[in-house]
Amino acid sequence: MSQFNDSQPIFVQIGERIADMILSKTTREGEALPSVRQISADLAVNPLTVTRAYQSLVDIGVVESRRGMGMFVAEGGHQRLLAHERQKFLTEEWPRVMARLAALDLDPTQLLKQGGKDE
């Protein structure tokens, strides 16, 4: 969990990693997430960067802060995150995928029928 790319701010990348933990159910609803200090030390980043990553997940109702206890996956957080990520995919990534398919003259219907099998 230490390499970052230059295409996105670090707090966004950290937020995505935390979101992946929730989506994969590595951390379940009601469970504690790693502390800001722990992530900050593990990744050698400023604690404010980690706080900002957590805040982005708090803002969409996926994570909750419990005073004096830390950050926890909110009840219903997995479903909210899943809905949020699906919407984000459909509005941000899917149009790029469709444009790339069109540029390569690939038929999405045929690709789905093929099911990933080589010809």
TrEMBL record:
Gene3D superfamilies: 6.10.250.1220, Winged helix-like DNA-binding domain superfamily/Winged helix DNA-binding domain (1.10.10.10). One of its GO terms (molecular function) is DNA binding. The keyword Iron-sulfur does not apply. Residues 8-76 form the HTH gntR-type domain. InterPro entries: Tscrpt_reg_HTH_GntR (IPR000524), WH-like_DNA-bd_sf (IPR036388), WH_DNA-bd_sf (IPR036390). Pfam families: GntR (PF00392). It comes from the Bacteria. Keywords: DNA-binding, Transcription, Transcription regulation. This is GntR family transcriptional regulator. The lineage of its organism: Bacteria, Pseudomonadati, Pseudomonadota, Alphaproteobacteria, Hyphomicrobiales.
